[in-house]
Please model this.
Amino acid sequence: MSGERAAAADAEAGAGGPGAQLSQELDAYDGRWVAVRDGRVVAHAADEESLRADGAVRDGDLLFPVGDPPSGFYLINV
Model:
């Protein structure tokens, strides 16, 4: 689903409000980045940079990867 189609689907379904819960399953987006607004996916892409470049993504949208993180070594600064 392109960002434009996701945004159109979001507009048809109506907006959630502040504090809206995620209202759809994310299994179809496994391994991809998603942008969520008002509890609905408004865009998705293979990586964060491509997602941020999508015209359907706004500054206040929540962006995150879906699925298990890639295997490997992680260094977390605390």
